[in-house]
Amino acid sequence: MQTLPACPSCQAEYTYQDGELLLCPACGHQWSATDNATPEQGLQIRDSAGNLLQDGDTVTVIKDLKVKGSSAVVKIGTKVKNIRLVSGDHDIDCKIDGFGAMSLKSEFVRKV
């Protein structure tokens, strides 16, 4: 019996083949059976200049950012070390000295 790969989207084991496509009943993801069953590449997040970001990078804030729920402002030029990339609208999780844990949008940072 042929073993089918897990779904690259949700990692469910219940994939099945329909013609040339592999289907996942858990999330509805479809992919080609000829794609060598490689999972999708990780997050492809780019900074404001188009540089590819990775976990652990250091970035600089390129615009004054208001902190929601506070009167504080993250100033332009603030360095943020050891970022972590996540999926969603605010795609960078980090700690900023003097502010604590925050989420930032990649369009407001530049890789150092």
Automatic annotation (TrEMBL):
Segments forming domain Protein YjdM C-terminal: 45-112
Database matches in Pfam families: YjdM (PF03831), Zn_Ribbon_YjdM (PF08274)
InterPro entries in the cross-refs: YjdM, YjdM_C, YjdM_N
Domain Protein YjdM N-terminal: 3-32
Family annotation (NCBIfam families): phnA
Family listed: Belongs to the YjdM family.
Annotated protein name in UniProt: Alkylphosphonate utilization protein PhnA
Native organism: Alishewanella jeotgali KCTC 22429
